[in-house]
């Protein structure tokens, strides 16, 4: 009897570190299940992805990224390189121009049994339908975030309040209290329109045409939101996380970083630590940062606040804030941790 070839999965992450890292973890997980895995990317993102998967037999194929795109600075192929997230919509729209190359590569590969592509790459659903290949979309955020975002667009619970700061409860999830200010456009708008909303609508339609979605979460963390999504919204969402557990163990240095030693001390004391982070690309006004700093300082709780080196360089108040914390010995800011973690993950 001849041997049976393994099932072949093609994974295509969106060009953003927060999207790419977990889907590479997923690639490893599938690879361990003895599946054949191919990861698609673009030339500028290829070196880091290839380096990340160097200890595997996972294939990496490059697709050309569009050039001379209005609204997208030349040479940029990842959102973390954008000057501002105001460039996001032109950037994500430009990815549609990859579609012909995507289809050519899929057709040229050994038989593809499933495409797993980022939810932001909704146009890959058209290609999957055209090629007759099941597509499952990948969603790196939580069931909570995607459920509430969908409710805001579909049911508009904020239509009953008179102020963006007035609290309202969420239909079907009455214990969740929010304000309109907790959301950004188009989710905060009663009559959303424009390029960003068009993008959200297009990816939503593509999601409903897919075979379902994989979420980087685990059911016991947010069962009510996963149940709500599957029973009232859809498409079917499977929790497959936390995918970071698929990452290979790292070589530990003899000396633990100072912030890890600090966390170990808190653990030994039986004290909890508040973790504060908004991602590497969140754009926050100086006033917002100051308010967060004041709140943390006055709270007198132990916390770990992750700030990028870019934020530290841009805002002088961070230095004074850190000095006061050292005297108090209750908080810790680690400026390079997020940046190091993200780069290391790729």
TrEMBL record:
<comment type="similarity">
    <text>Belongs to the UDP-glycosyltransferase family.</text>
</comment>
<keyword id="KW-0328">Glycosyltransferase</keyword>
<dbReference type="GO" id="GO:0035251">
    <property type="term" value="F:UDP-glucosyltransferase activity"/>
</dbReference>
<protein>
    <recommendedName>
        <fullName>UDP-glycosyltransferase 90A1</fullName>
    </recommendedName>
</protein>
<keyword id="KW-0808">Transferase</keyword>
């Amino acid at each position: 009897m001849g041997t049976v070839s393994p099932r072949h999965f093609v994974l295509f992450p969106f060009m953003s570190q927060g999207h790419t890292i977990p889907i590479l973890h997923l690639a490893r997980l599938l690879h361990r299940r003895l599946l054949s895995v191919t990861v698609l990317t673009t030339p500028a993102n290829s070196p880091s992805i290839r380096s990340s998967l160097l200890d595997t037999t996972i294939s990496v194929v490059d697709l050309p990224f569009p050039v001379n795109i209005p609204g997208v600075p030349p040479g940029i192929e990842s959102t973390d390189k954008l000057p501002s997230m105001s460039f996001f919509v032109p950037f994500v729209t430009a990815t549609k121009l990859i579609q012909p190359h995507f289809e050519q590569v899929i057709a040229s590969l050994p038989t593809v049994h499933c495409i797993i592509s980022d939810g932001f790459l909704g146009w890959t659903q058209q290609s999957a339908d055209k090629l007759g290949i099941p597509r499952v979309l990948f969603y790196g955020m939580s069931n909570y975030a995607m459920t509430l975002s969908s409710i805001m667009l579909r049911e508009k619970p904020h239509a009953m309040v008179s102020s963006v700061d007035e609290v309202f409860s969420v239909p079907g999830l009455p214990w969740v209290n929010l304000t309109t200010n907790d959301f950004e456009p188009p989710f905060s708008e009663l009559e959303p329109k424009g390029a960003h909303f068009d993008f959200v609508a297009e990816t939503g339609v593509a999601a409903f045409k897919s075979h379902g979605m994989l979420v980087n979460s685990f059911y016991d963390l947010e069962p009510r939101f996963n149940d709500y999504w599957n029973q009232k919204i859809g498409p079917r969402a499977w929790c497959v996380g936390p995918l970071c557990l698929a990452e290979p163990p790292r070589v530990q240095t003899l000396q633990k970083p100072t912030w890890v030693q600090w966390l170990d001390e808190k653990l030994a004391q039986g004290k909890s630590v508040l973790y504060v982070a908004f991602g590497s690309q969140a754009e926050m006004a100086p006033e917002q940062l100051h308010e967060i700093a004041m709140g943390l300082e006055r709270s007198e709780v132990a916390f770990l606040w992750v700030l990028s080196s870019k934020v530290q360089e841009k805002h002088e108040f961070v230095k004074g804030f850190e000095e006061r914390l050292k005297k108090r010995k209750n908080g810790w800011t680690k400026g390079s941790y997020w940046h190091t973690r993200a780069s290391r993950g790729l």
